[in-house]
Write a structure and sequence with these properties.
Layout: E1 13-15, E2 20-22, E3 25-27, E4 30-33, E5 36-38, E6 41-43, E7 50-53, E8 58-60, E9 63-70, E10 73-75, E11 78-86, E12 91-93, E13 96-103, E14 108-110, E15 113-115, H1 118-129
Parallel strand pairs: 1-4, 2-5, 3-6, 4-7, 5-8, 6-9, 7-9, 8-10, 9-11, 10-12, 11-13, 12-14, 13-15
Length: 136
Amino acid sequence: MFRKKKNNFNVDTLIDSGMKINGHTEVSGGLRLDGKIYGDLNFKEDKPGAIVIGESGLLEGNLAVPTAVIAGKVLGNIIASEYLEIESTGIVEGDISYNLIEIHAGAIVKGIMIKLGKTQADKAKKINKEKKLIKF
């Protein structure tokens, strides 16, 4: 009856649980975050970008990404131009703009959720490409 979207992407970068990054960060490809990032996180458009934030992962800043799976904590706004999944252990404190979303029972979301239409999703992708984050 329900079809679950499969997240098939490679992890190109790993930020392990003992690592901490301060400041704006820009990556491309697949990212696994089990550590902490204090600052905005943006994905380059040169190849499809995706992030998995593990249960111990923390992002304290805005996130602009095509695809995200969150099992940890995000304290900031999220723009997911393609797909966003918030696992049962996930916590998001900030506004969310999304194209497709899946929220598991037990997840915590504190903020406004905005569904992006096709035009808005394309605009979000273009803004991400220009390396700017939309501020809410």
